[in-house]
Write a structure and sequence with these properties.
seven-stranded mixed β-sheet, 2 domains, 421 residues, alpha/beta
Length: 421
């Protein structure tokens, strides 16, 4: 593991004066079940807590810190940007925004970009876009958006209404109307819903779907299914919109998840990895879906100079360091190691599924060990991983992770599993 940066020894007493104790009273609202650790320093794939203990980060801020922690290029470029300009209103032209939009368009199927602050906001924009498209392009009075069961699109009310998991709905009803759900990767389920809604005329504005479901259990999309819905959307002039908030910006080993499926969406949303840990999201559209006019949608902070400099730096560094190739190599290594764990723990582990550096380690449903229990055991072994439901462990390290660090991740995960035997 690396030495701690900025001249602090890993057991320095300086840690005692940074942050607060994990068990101290807090004024923060209790919206999270937080693990009992506070991190105060990071470098690459490593994090240090208030006690000076070092952890291997296999979660990257939930697929967000694409370049790892305290990346040198990000620190350099963002420090320069802070010395020039941090924020101006979208009432004015923003060169950094134009530069990032041009890069996104040049490296994807999109033609235009709207910037915001998060994945939920990007999906909110996609939902508004869908409704306007339904009104003006398909002449629908009450446009319907189709979404998949087990999906997750965010915590805001519209994004929550588009989320096909009832556990996220509890306590927040009534949800917004205008969303109907089909079974993910199930052609028959999708066709039946489409025929039911379109039998008496146009009702559907768009299909909002993840190319790989993250919170729903790390479920990769199947090519035959996605290619079929692409054809049906073309036939009926329905927008196909991908939620790439978690898989976009290189996490699959390609820039975009849609490249794994051999099709192009009419629009897609991104966030998480785009800013490398800084708040930025975006809705990218082809000309077919470019229906917003001035005043239709806006964001005070969206696409400000600082956020766009972060996004552009992440993009440039992924290219410069050939991190897409690294993701592909590390995927092979990680998957091979996880498959070996499945073979060695057949009573607890069922399978491995995912793309690139978004992998799910699936537990048997009838096992007494649940994913959150293993996450806590991994924390004791100085490894950070997450869950995607009670029966799936989510592993999503920085795109910069090395071969040696993958080995360490697998060793610590094995030790965490052994603790239950």
């Amino acid at each position: 593991m690396p030495e701690l940066v900025d001249g602090l020894d890993s057991k320095s007493s300086a840690f005692g004066h940074v942050g607060s104790s994990p068990t101290a009273p807090t004024s923060v609202m209790g919206t999270y079940n937080r693990l009992p650790v506070s991190f105060v320093k990071g470098k690459g794939c490593w994090l240090w807590d208030t006690n000076g203990d070092c952890y291997l980060d296999g979660l990257a801020g939930i697929a967000t810190c694409a370049l790892g922690h305290s990346d040198r290029a990000l620190r350099r470029e963002l420090s320069k940007q802070l010395g020039r300009l941090q924020h101006v209103s979208n009432l004015f032209q923003i060169p950094e925004q134009e530069e990032l939009a041009n890069w996104l368009v040049s490296n994807s199927c999109a033609e235009k970009v709207f910037f915001c602050n998060s994945g939920a906001e990007a999906n909110e924009a996609a939902i508004k876009l869908s409704r306007k498209y339904g009104h003006i392009k398909r002449n629908i009075e009450k446009p319907i958006i189709l979404a998949a069961k087990a999906s997750f699109h965010g915590r805001t009310l519209a994004a929550l209404s588009a989320t096909g998991q009832t556990k996220y709905h509890e306590g927040f009803k009534p949800l917004l109307r205008g969303f109907k759900f089909f079974d993910y990767n199930n052609i028959q389920s999708f066709e039946e819903l489409l025929c039911q809604l379109e039998s008496d005329g146009p009702q559907i504005a768009s299909v909002l779907i993840e190319p790989i479901q993250g919170e729903g259990g790390v479920n990769p999309g199947e090519k035959i299914f996605f290619q079929h819905i692409r054809k049906l959307c073309n036939k009926h002039q329905i927008l196909l919109i991908f939620d790439e908030v978690q898989i976009g910006m290189g996490r699959s080993g390609n820039w975009w998840g849609y490249q794994e499926l051999g099709i192009e969406p009419d629009a897609f949303t991104i966030a998480k990895g785009l800013g490398g840990g800084h708040a930025i999201g975006a809705l990218l559209v082809k000309e077919k879906a470019n229906v917003f006019s001035p005043g239709d949608h806006a964001s005070t902070f969206g696409g400000n100079p600082f956020a766009c400099k972060a996004g552009l730096t992440v993009a440039m560094e992924i290219e410069k360091r050939k991190l897409l190739s690294n993701v592909q190599k590390r995927e092979s290594q990680l998957v091979a190691g996880l498959v070996q764990l499945v073979n060695d723990f057949p009573h607890e582990l069922k399978e491995v599924r995912g793309w690139g550096l978004l992998q799910g380690l699936v537990l048997h449903e009838n096992t007494a060990i649940k994913a959150p229990m293993i996450v806590k055991s991994a924390l004791d072994n100085k490894l950070l991983i997450g869950t995607a439901g009670v029966n799936v462990l989510r592993i999503a390290p920085p795109l910069t992770i090395s071969s040696d660090e993958i080995k360490k991740l697998l060793i610590r995960l094995r030790e965490s599993l052994i603790s239950f035997q």
